[in-house]
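hey can u run this one w/ carboxymethyl coenzyme *A bound, need the structure tokens asap thx
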Amino acid sequence: MSETTAKLTLGDETYEFPVLSGTVGPDVIDIRSLYAKTGLFTYDPGFTSTAACDSAITYIDGDKGELLYRGYPIEQLAAKSSYIEVCYLLLYGELPSKAELADFENRVTRHTMVHEQMHYFYRGFRRDAHPMAIVTGVVGAMAAFYHDSTDISDPMQREIASIRMVAKLPTIAAMAYKYSVGQPFVYPRNDLDYASNFLHMCFAVPAEEYKVDPVVAKAMDRIFTLHADHEQNASTSTVRLSGSSDANPFACIAAGVACLWGPAHGGANEAALNMLREIGTVDRIPEFIERAKDKNDPFRLMGFGHRVYKNYDPRAAVMQESAREVLELLGVENNPTLQVAQELEKIALEDPYFVERKLYPNVDFYSGIILDAIGFPTSMFTAIFALSRTVGWIAQWKEMIGDPQKKIGRPRQLYHGATTRDYVDIAQR
Ligand code: CMC
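ok here u go:
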């Protein structure tokens, strides 16, 4: 029990609430008894002041620009680890030993194929369907194909469902891409690492051999790592809220994918590259900066700003470095989009509007440039974010299911609608 308490005075009454401390980060006022004690609710749209869970997975210090997975700084993981190792870390809490990693990799690899009948499911979509529409549908449909891992009360089934999703999401996303370009689906190859296998499933064709470039595979792996988890963001909170009703894990992750699609969240990488292309040349930047500052114009600098980071997003720094490496390798270092991005960043970071509001580039500002250089169409960007984030969603979902404090999520409201009134017959209206 915490010793510090917070006092709330309402009229003549004073109520006390415990203040809880985590290992790091701001303390929280425990208001679980607020309604019972006072008959009042708190009002916090957008959850800007609300901690909705107790978690030990990811920590962000937005003022410092720090991101930790299970305590490890993202910069170290991006430089030294691999995505598959990061998946293990997020799911099980510790870095794996060599044997544990080999076993985990083997388990994931053995689940990369999807049920053959899923191929027919894809064929029901229009060819021009957005990959996120397909991925949302197919992930939800996994519950119809894998009945034997939908019982959330069985830890074994929870584990198999988790492995299945980490393993199959790249296959599902790659199939969405292949379907949109009218090429045959490419089966996963278990001799390739996670990132190389994804690239192979996206870009190989039966007519010729496709060799995965290790620099490109490394950049892909880094993109996966940087997107793997991000604390209680909108899609993760969606997964937790869906899971709080004991819905099956495939349905919960499909809900997360749907939420991620929005341009204020995962859809920003697609929107950021489209914006950079629309700007086109460095001389047009001032015009767009002015538009972003104009309150009468809905335009925002996509890939800029963040609810939590009020400093440089540490993922953007790694991503910028990766963008340079990949473009250099592919011989397109004079890429006009990268030039516009770098100049836009420079101008925005000196402009008082952005400085005062602490608006910095976020992860999405540079990721699109890399994905574009690798050969992905913009419509695939958010699907790649979704496959990377799947492990984070699953880790958070598993943590919640195992939490003895778990309750169905049920926010309350401040009601401003009509009070009780009598029904009026249609003839009298
Ligand atoms: N361009 C111009 N102005 C901005 C921007 C932007 N990108 N972002 C925020 N502002 C302004 C906003 O108009 C407001 O100004 P004022 O105080 O004068 O009204 C102030 O900054 C605070 O903005 P907010 O909308 O209250 O902040 P928020 O925390 O609710 O929104 C955000 C965060 C990420 C939705 C927002 O910054 C945004 O829309 N950015 C562009 C979309 C984007 O890049 N999203 C990706 C986020 S990172 C990846 C992910 O998590 O999915």
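The pocket of carboxymethyl coenzyme *A is lined by residues 233, 264-266, 268, 292, 300-307, 357, 359, 362-364 (CB under 6 Å). anyway lmk if its weird
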